[in-house]
Amino acid sequence: MQGERFFELIHLYLSKKISVKEQVELDSAITNDEKLSVLFKELTKPKNMIVGPLELEEKFGKTMNATRGRDEVNRTVLKISRNAFLKYAAAILIGIFTCSVLYYGISNSYNVDNFSQKIETKNGERKNVTLPDGTHVWLNSASTIAFKKSFGKENRDISLTGEAYFEVSKNQNLPMYINAKELTVKVVGTSFNVRSYPDENRAEASLVEGKIELFINKDQKDSKFLQVIPGEKISVNYDKKLNNQPKNSETSKIPTKDMIIQKSIFLKNNSSDVPAEIAWKENKLVFDKEPFDNIISKLEKWYDVQIEIKNDSLKQHNLSGNMESDHIEDVLELLKSTGIEFKFKKENNLITIY
């Protein structure tokens, strides 16, 4: 990789403007070239925010010399002009300062012990609430949002477990931060859905209108940043398996965590259908080529039941459907009508599928 391109990618990375494809390009460069990896780690250390471009240029030279000394046989000379280096170094310093402020600011604000105000739903329950700042929140089953007493005055920090749809009251001077597992969503005023249950291997953020900024793995030095546009869904999968990856999606593997980032389109133009990601807030269950065991997990929360699958072959099926019923037996019969064969029996709160 040419030197100027490498520094351009670092600049984009630190200024939070890097695209998924550019992130893949940068990850590949630092994975396959030891010298670039060493340089990347050195230039992105928070302590470097206190030095100027000339000092950083000197550090760059020392880093490369040390690297060449360790690996004389495979060394490559990173050719970059002094002017180009200073140009990108200056941008990098600004990016490092911004990242440091964001990192320490967000990390300190999300001390769970400070989140004394809670709104919860149980299995089979859904709520629509209005927060002190005027934000409307729909809570799906088995979900919790927590916030501080100072919410809406000094901060708009929310901790989310489960699933919630937000219509955020606009406040340019006081952005809202929603923390859900490895996801942190920054928003000023917009509508979006976040799903992050502790018993599921993925977390999702789906934007309906406006814009959001999404931090992934925020408490680590290799945190990622994405800007999301209306109609996009960002999924973070924790077991390297992408279920139902859309043809128009882009993926990027986070190097230091066992995750995959998936970007896809969930809102389609000229379509009157309510997408699965937000249908739940209208009391509808919508599945779009979803794995059978994922559907079962949603049904357990929706109907407050326990479901055991005795036939593992059923987990290989992906199903689609639009269902509205107060009785889970009706939903299971509809699932059977899609062409897969199974039987079930219900005893009190336990359903066995075989």
From TrEMBL:
Gene3D superfamilies linked:
2.60.120.1440, 3.55.50.30
Q: Which domain of life is it from?
A: Bacteria
Looking up InterPro entries in the UniProt record yields: FecR, FecR_C, Ferrdict_sens_TM
TM spans (from-to): 85-106
User: What are the UniProt keywords, alphabetically?
Assistant: Membrane, Transmembrane, Transmembrane helix
Q: Where is each FecR protein domain found?
A: 118-213
What Pfam families would the database entry show? FecR, FecR_C
All residue ranges annotated as the Protein FecR C-terminal domain in the record: 284-353
Matches recorded under PANTHER family = PERIPLASMIC SIGNAL SENSOR AND SIGMA FACTOR ACTIVATOR FECR-RELATED, PROTEIN FECR
* UniProt protein name: FecR family protein
- Species for this entry: Sphingobacterium tenebrionis
Show the taxonomic lineage.
Bacteria, Pseudomonadati, Bacteroidota, Sphingobacteriia, Sphingobacteriales
